[in-house]
Specification:
- It is a single chain.
- The protein has a domain at about 130-255: Immunoglobulin-like, CATH 2.60.40.
- The chain is α+β, with helices and mostly antiparallel strands and about 270 residues long.
- Helix content is about 15%, strand content about 30%.
- The protein is built from five helices and ten strands, in the order H-H-H-E-H-E-E-E-E-E-E-E-E-E-H.
- The termini are far apart.
- The strands form two sheets. Strands 1, 4, 5, 8, 9 and 10 form a six-stranded antiparallel sheet that branches.
- One of its GO terms (cellular component) is protein phosphatase type 1 complex.
- InterPro entries: CBM21_dom (IPR005036), CBM21_dom_sf (IPR038175), PP1_regulatory_subunit_3 (IPR050782).
- GO terms for molecular function: glycogen binding; protein phosphatase 1 binding.
- It holds the Pfam family CBM_21.
């Protein structure tokens, strides 16, 4: 049979009270032998997996002082790393050819001619020219405005269309200004609304005047020689309707061809203009 190891046990001894008065009992124990379990400290140290609240505040304050360019790192990923193709082929059918505006093609051709030319280049441009004097430059502009309550101020043309300004007398707050125009001598007509732009205060006995702006889109194929665009301004306020049709003749613009000379040193400006 295996040998048994004897362990010393604690002994309790009581002492008889002395004559001097009662004394409390005392517990005496002998030292622990090798059979007693090893004692471990009860207070354990907290794991440092997460920083404390003050430490987190310090780290957040330190990150705020670091520039954004240092905190964020750019990452470059290629298409093949994501399982995508590096190239993509698109086949266009005949009906899917991109439509390039005429004014863009003309400017590109001008730029190519400038590149291969060693001297000044002369070319022609088609644009709409007003058949009337700008109303704001006329001496009777103010009187016409007071008489008609609405009057065209100025109109300019470009490759995209016509833009201009209209002045109306501020009869009431609610008002509507529009422009009615045609490309085929009023066989068909179109109308666009003008937008409020600014107000002109009273001066020289005239009331307050509102300025409206408008834009008439002109298709590029209409920019042909001797093509005519006609329009008139309409002003609706307080249930009344006022017109400015250039005293019954309507405002008209005719397409004409103008020769222009372009110096070679201006070729770079055409690149930026396109």
């Amino acid at each position: 049979p295996p040998a048994l190891h004897a362990c010393s046990s604690m002994t309790l001894r009581s002492r008889t009270p002395a004559e001097g008065g009662p004394q409390p009992n005392k517990l005496q124990s002998s030292t622990s032998s090798s059979c007693d379990p090893a004692l471990r400290p009860i207070i354990r140290r907290r794991a440092r997996s997460l920083p404390t609240l003050p430490e987190r505040r310090k780290q957040a304050a330190a990150q705020c002082q670091v520039p954004v360019c240092q905190r964020r790192m750019n990452r470059v990923r290629f298409a093949d790393a994501l399982g995508l193709e590096l190239t993509e082929v698109k086949v266009f059918q005949t009906g899917e050819d991109p439509s390039i505006p005429l004014h863009v093609l003309s400017r590109l051709s001008i730029n190519s001619d400038l590149w291969y030319s060693s001297s000044e280049l002369e070319f022609t441009m088609q644009c709409l020219v007003p058949d009337f004097q700008q109303p704001v430059d006329c001496m009777d502009f103010s009187s016409r405005l007071q008489e008609q309550q609405v009057c065209l101020e100025r109109v300019t043309s470009s490759d995209l269309g016509l833009s201009g300004t209209i002045q109306v007398c501020n009869v009431a707050f609610e008002k509507q200004v529009s422009v009615r125009y045609t490309f085929n001598h009023w066989e068909s007509l179109h109308e666009v609304c003008a937008r409020w732009h600014s107000s002109i205060p009273e001066k020289n006995g005239q009331g307050q005047v509102d300025v409206f702006t408008f834009f008439l889109p002109v298709p590029p194929f209409l920019l042909q020689l001797c093509s005519v665009v006609q329009f008139a301004a309409r002003y609706q306020v307080n249930g009344w309707e006022y017109w400015d049709n250039n005293r019954g003749k309507n405002y008209s613009l005719t397409c004409w061809t103008h020769p222009l000379k372009m110096p070679r040193e201006c070729e770079e400006s055409w690149i930026h203009f396109i």
